[in-house]
Structures
1.
Amino acid sequence: MATTISKPATLVGKGIRRQEDPRLITGTAVYVDDIKMPGMHHAAIVRSPHAAARIAGINTEAALAHPGVVAVFTGADVKNLGAVPCASSLPGLRVPHHHLLAQDRVYYTGHPVAVVVATDRYVAADAASLVEVQYDPQPAVADPEKALAAGAPAVHPQWPDNTSFTFHQEGGDTGQAFRDAEIVVKQRITSQRLIPTSIETRGVVAEWRPGEKSLTMFTSTQIPHLVRTLVAGILGMPENHLRVITPEVGGGFGSKLNVYAEEALMCYIAKEIGKPVKWVESRRENFQATIHGRGHVDYYELAAKRDGTMLGLKLKLIQDLGAYHQLLTPAIPTLSVLMMPGLYKFKSISADIIGVFTNCVPTDAYRGAGRPEATHGIERMVDILAAELHMDPAEIRFKNFVGKDEFPYATTTGLFYDSGNYALPLQNAMAQVDYAGLRQEQATARAAGKLMGIGLSTYGEICAIGPSAAMPAGGWESATVKIEPSGKVTVMTGASPHGQGEETTFAQIVADELGVDIDDVMVVHGDTAVVQYGIGTFGSRGTAVGGAALFYALQELKAKIKKFGAMLLGSDNVSLVGGSCVDDATGKSVSFAEMAVAAYHAKTLPPNTQPGLVATYFWEPPNFTFPFGAHIVVTDVDRETGRISIRRYVAVDDCGKIINPLLVAGQVHGGVAQGLGQALWEEAVYDEQGQLITGELTDYALPKASFMPLIESSHTETPSPVNPLGVKGVGEAGTIGCSPAVVNSVVDALSPLGVRHIDMPLTPQKIWKLIVQSGGLS
Amino acid sequence: MKRKISLTINGKSYTDEVEPRLLLIHYLREVAGLTGPHIGCETSICGACTVMLDGRTVKSCTMFAVQADGRQILTIEGLAADGKLDPVQEAFWNEHGLQCGFCTPGMILSSKQLLEDNPNPTDQEIRHGLEGNLCRCTGYQHIVNAVRAAAKAGA
């Protein structure tokens, strides 16, 4: 039989190469844009060139008359369909009705106004330019602080204060902390808008089958099941008549953790025209109309004793929401508040969020989603405090860490940190760079007039998102494992990955648990007609929640297997050993293949025994997990040009137990690249009129290979008690740990010039200006 | 007014009538049915559409199909000869030089070109050599490792 009997060496913990790669390195993987159907039409979307305007009229005649055009849809056609959903709820939240296409106004540059459908992609694009939209431009506001000022243009005329919500959270007695304080440091810290920029843009193919009254939608998403439920709701159709298939997904980083107007529009159009329809986002559309990340203006106040003991933290957080709420838009800054104490023993915190509408595309989850912003804030504030107190930034951190014997640790923000040894990664990183030696070298360099910086960040994060109580719509995950009649093993996971490699890590878990060869395991995901309901991949949850669900499903399956093994062996005492079931007394064994045949042929089942070998488990996590780590960045700043060179980048991360170190390293590297992107280069820039200046990759500084330093990555391994695998999650760690370490390093380099804070991105121009202004140009 | 073009892709002859404005990437993907090269930006920045034209890498999103008339093209689908992976493909697999895989076909072909031009590159030369290809997943480190490994393997 096909299944290998001999148990391979334990795979969990090994850096094996990926199961999914052969199709990806040979160009045979199938992404949305690779799907072609007979009779397939192409859609092009007409988008607003204005950030704010009334629509006085739309003339579609010329477009409709263009050869090859079959239909043009405008706001009037979809007026009565449901709205693009926001799943977050906060007290008093103002939610603008988010139509699939603009009605009488547009609210941001790139706002979809009409859809042209044609037989050919080029023809659709030609005809889109023939749609005449009469705009009556209105004043726009693109900056959240300006939007809050008196007399600012109203993004939504019904809410002239541009405020969607305010949210207050308090833990402990902040008033007392600030009265007890011997020093208070304050700083305004921004976390600029970023464009997630998955290299594959979004795309949708939708097909209507009239006989079955069913729609099939291929979409590049991180959450196929949620898209199915929510798009069915928008269209007012039964969700079991909508099948969502997520083929290969070319990156997401949170930007595909959403339900977009175009998904519902293509389903609607496929049904209207009775033909399959494809829409693939251009890069310009991706920058204008796919969610952005971050967009914070934060005002921090930190109260402390002069010995460095931190007492209390206050935050006023102004969140640039954009013009609408996408799926999780208003919830993202609440994650920042939860994370604001970092790894430190604060007695009190107080936070006020102001969610502000602007004439920009909505912000939502982008790698880290609220946690990089919070970590950047606290890690900058700790450094600012250390500088004021003339303390070493490492020393002040050691002094304030939650101790390794204090877990589970209840934070003032209402979380329970699961496990940790926060000092250890910092100690390891300091040893690795020879911290004391570096400080000496820095003193020498400074004496010689050189600008050398040493920056560190010690970050924590909220991962394995998350317990359902903390989520708008379920935080559990599901897995089905079946042994096929041939003895092969199929896994169906609701945690549909998009580059993270769960086809491999999950197969490693299965191979170890069942004792089968990894090549006999197939991991299936991203098809709502095949996979039981699931939540998806985001918030470092794939393995920490989805993998745990798989583990529990495997335990149930093993119990079933043993029943069939016992039946075949005629023994009550059997064990599973290396892909077979063994009679403990006689040593006789039967293979999975033999048991599978018995289970499916079902000729000799005892009474009341279900045939088949399948187990499904929906696992609800009891808590988040809390990875942590320390990053140290050594920089040299060129006085003449403001150029920053990264001499060392050392990352010591603790993501709990590691299943595949090769894949974990990949996640850290990629995370750091996105953190460095924010720290040094990237920024979504809107001008005063709400035009997106960084509208293409030509204008948005995505990190290139030559930009990146060598990342020296290592780990400490503190298992999480939250799940049976002991894993914590690693998808966002690099991003969260990175930006404060880089900025702390550069501020440290410039501190002899009196610089105490710099907002990101640290472009050479910005640094050079600072050097000039502080008289530091030699 | 369509024009007739004849070209060789991955060793196979193709003759088609195409509109003069048809981009090479769309010809490859939609006419020739080779969906390995991808479209990531349409402005020749990202390099996901990279193919080899007469043995040199080009970005097929900024070339017309008619410009490839009479030329030889290699796409990622043609790289593995007789089902045996090219050493660069093998190295990307071994070194985990990809995550979502979308940039990978272009990245592999650019790496191949880089190693043909410079069989023994330094890490800095690898990083500069791949500046025309963007990856948002890997932070490039494992890609650099892969190219170095492929160089060692004599790719």
2.
Amino acid sequence: MSAYEWFRIRRTMLAYDYWLDVEGVTGRARKDLRAELVGNLTDATAAVGYPAARRSLGSVRTLATAAAPDRDSRPRWVVGSYAAIVVFAIGAFAALGLITAWADGVMAAGGGQGLWIGHPFFLPWVEITVRQGETLQILATFNPWSVVVPPLVAFLIGSRIWRLATRQSSPTPAAQVR
Amino acid sequence: MTTHDPQMIKGVLGLLLLQLLDEGDGYGYGIVTRLQENGFEDLAEGTVYPALARLEAAGHLDSYLLRSAAGPARKYYRITAGGRTELIRARRDWDALVERVRLLTPTQLTAQTGA
């Protein structure tokens, strides 16, 4: 097997692992499923080449869905993590834009040199200080919780954290290596 | 190359796999190649692997890992006692279905009705 085929198999396994995690398959079971598929895909690649082996495998998402017997009972940590990252990114960009717009508005209205302190309409918990001297200084002060809480809430909702309290037992992993 | 109706194959895939594994243990890709060598060339891995997982989850198969010189350890499947019982039931149902389909052929119908 060529290094390129090895790389392509690993890339397929990354996608499979992602979908297994999305389906809520836990670490040990996921590792077993991954090991099984990498073995089968390696054999198939050695026999017919990677393109044919991959084509015959079909969608790794469908495979992952089929391999998750009780997928609806476990938290989805990856989904929660993505939700937290998205909420944080959107919040950061929105805050940056609103703060910049507020400071720009203050400077346009006031003109000249001076010090302005205020709260933008959409971010009342953020205090903005604009100091216009020889240089322009913009300072935003906010409670750290306002940065932590929205992504945390997104993570908890996205990962369906309440399933920890209602989850079923994990499927039995494959028996020992002979 | 023989082609089969995919829906029909899906309906009897469990029976095929149990039948195959009743003759000897096998691992995923090995099972696929055995099926292909036995006239099911159009059966894809993406169809067989989920079916194996379902049979294992249902208790008709269990599994063990066996080291392979060619690469990673392989997960071998073997039929359980429950799987053999299921195989007998599925084969009986299949035989009954084939018999009913055979009786419904126009020739047979004509013979039965005397038309």
